[in-house]
TrEMBL record, chain A:
Assembly and oligomerization: NDH-1 is composed of 14 different subunits. Subunits NuoA, H, J, K, L, M, N constitute the membrane sector of the complex.
A GO CC annotation given for this chain: NADH dehydrogenase complex
Native organism: Parafilimonas terrae
HAMAP family recorded: NDH1_NuoA
Catalytic activity: a quinone + NADH + 5 H(+)(in) = a quinol + NAD(+) + 4 H(+)(out)
EC number of this enzyme: 7.1.1.-
Protein name: NADH-quinone oxidoreductase subunit A
Membrane topology recorded in Swiss-Prot or TrEMBL: Multi-pass membrane protein
UniProtKB/TrEMBL annotation, chain B:
Main location (coarse class): membrane
PANTHER family, sorted: NADH DEHYDROGENASE SUBUNIT 1, NADH-UBIQUINONE OXIDOREDUCTASE CHAIN 1
EC number(s) reported in the record: 7.1.1.-
GO annotations of cellular component type: plasma membrane
Annotated TM spans: 16-35, 82-102, 122-142, 163-180, 200-218, 245-268, 288-310, 330-348
PROSITE patterns referenced in this protein's UniProt entry, alphabetically: COMPLEX1_ND1_2
Keyword Ribonucleoprotein: no
Family, per entry: Belongs to the complex I subunit 1 family.
Domain of life per record: Bacteria
Name of protein: NADH-quinone oxidoreductase subunit H
Length: 133, 350
């Protein structure tokens, strides 16, 4: 219980003004990207023909739409990523306060690692990450 | 209105100048990385490399970049036009904004003002880096999907699932480092390393995992499957031409520079000058900061060279090997490293 209160009680060291330069940098970068995009649009020659605007498929005629049903594996990887990435982020506040939480906090995190591993072993046993059939 | 007036305009101006310098410098460095890559490849394959444009071929990157501006811009008929333009723009944008939290050197003194050579010293520095790196996957995915080309789409899917898979191991490997530093601010991490030892001495395994993941995040060999030209023609940017193609290629080199900078900051002391006690030489003032910056750049240069060395030495992985390495080897390894580090630190502190 004590350790939990400590996590909530962490001293706030920064303020929102620290983020203003990041905002300026994003605006600057976006301006640069837009300028270059417009410049290259204006500078390049424009001699478009119907053949030129076809999709490239190694010289043969392309057939149909490319957006066809895909292997389910990719979606599975994406879903598992979201799941595990959230779990990884949970470790960050612990790692930053880790010394003051001591052995008590360590054992609690070991429990969390066990949950993590249980899920991890489950998806591997289920073959979610098997690419060769 | 009163709130607006209390803004420190000089500070804003100073940050703006710093942003322009940092962004432009990272672009110029990325340009010369392409030159370095070709020269290093040539050296490793016993060739000469670019040597026509200017002395030693030094103007080659300018010629290449300039050429891309004057190439015809082709947007295929069947593509989704807005997304087609948005893809490379996002890739470049994310590459350009990661540098905001990197501390380039110690504070300098200009006209009586103490100027920090870090654009934004936020207390969640490393999380910001992760957030922006995760956005990078949109550039690949949108570009591949909007082209409406089968090869591009396959490459984009491969690229996206590769990048997100290695992000997990990357995030996990850093936790062991954070247990030592007890902070997420990159500036504080560097200052701690200046006071004691570099983190590489305590966390060699975390460094190896992190660097492997950095290779995968930048789509560099041996993890360059999204660009496997022998299988997928060219990769997710197959339909692109002119500066849109340039942005994709360029973003890769900017990312390489930034990830080298982050590796150096986290594990190799950042702008720490080896074998010199900075605190004892505080009277050197701006020269000390300059020496720190030079040291930082030299360390980054070494890691960029390492990226290229690996590219011209190691062949490409097969896709299932790549996913196996990321999920079944690096993630458990990083997790074990974290638990062991935690136990050892607590045991030593007792």
């Amino acid at each position: 219980m004590n350790s939990f209160v400590y996590l909530l009680d962490t001293v706030v060291t920064g303020n929102s003004a620290d983020y203003v330069p990041i905002g300026i940098q994003i605006i600057f970068a976006a301006g640069f990207v837009a300028t270059v995009m417009i410049a290259t649009h204006l500078l390049g020659p424009k001699r478009k023909t119907a053949e030129k605007l076809e999709n490239f498929a190694s010289g043969i005629e392309s057939h149909g739409n490319a957006r066809q049903p895909l292997a389910i594996k990719y979606f599975l990887v994406a879903i598992l990523f979201v799941l595990f990435d959230v779990e990884v982020i949970f470790f960050y506040p612990y790692a930053v306060n880790f010394k003051s939480l001591g052995w008590y906090g360590f054992i609690e995190v070991l429990l969390f690692v066990c949950f993590f591993l249980t899920g991890f072993i489950y998806i591997i046993k289920k073959g979610a990450l098997k690419w060769e059939d | 209105m009163i709130h607006l007036l209390t803004v420190d305009w000089l500070l804003l101006l100073e940050k703006l100048i710093l942003i322009v310098i940092v962004v432009m410098a990272s672009l110029v460095i990325a340009m010369y990385e392409t030159y370095a890559e070709r020269k290093i490849a040539a050296f490793m394959q016993d060739r000469i490399g670019p040597n026509r444009a200017g002395p030693l071929g030094l103007l080659q990157p300018l010629a290449d970049g300039g050429k891309l501006f004057f190439k015809e811009e082709i947007i295929p008929n069947h593509s989704n036009k807005i997304l087609f333009i948005l893809g490379p723009s996002l890739a470049m944008l994310t590459a350009m904004i990661t540098s905001a939290v990197i501390p380039w050197s110690g504070d300098i003194n200009l006209f009586g003002r103490t100027v920090s050579l870090q654009i934004a010293d936020v207390n969640i520095g490393i999380l910001y880096v992760f957030a922006v790196v995760s956005l990078g996957v949109y550039g690949i995915m949108i570009g591949g999907w909007s082209s409406n080309n089968k090869f591009s789409l396959l490459a984009a899917l491969r690229g996206a699932s590769q990048v997100i898979s290695y992000e997990l191991a990357m995030g996990l490997s850093l936790i062991a480092v954070l247990m030592i530093t007890q902070t997420l601010s990159l500036k504080e991490i560097v200052e701690q390393q200046m006071a004691s030892h570099w983190n590489i001495l305590y966390q060699p395994l975390a460094f190896i995992i992190f660097f492997t993941c950095a290779l995968a995040e930048c789509n560099r060999t041996p993890f360059d499957l999204p660009e496997a030209e022998s299988e997928l023609n060219m990769g997710y940017h197959q339909e692109y031409s002119s500066m849109k193609l340039g942005f994709y290629l360029f973003a890769e080199y900017v990312n390489m520079f930034i990830s080298s900078a982050i590796v150096v900051t986290l594990f190799f002391g950042g702008y720490d000058i080896p074998f010199l006690d900075e605190a004892a030489h505080a009277d050197w003032g701006n020269w000390l900061a300059l020496a720190g910056l030079v040291c930082f750049m030299l360390k980054i240069g070494f890691f960029i060279f390492l990226f290229m060395w690996i590219r011209w030495t190691v062949p490409r992985f097969r896709y299932d090997q790549l996913m196996d390495l990321g999920w079944k080897k690096l993630i458990p390894l990083a997790l074990a490293n974290m638990v062991i580090t935690g136990a050892v630190i607590l045991w030593m502190n007792k």
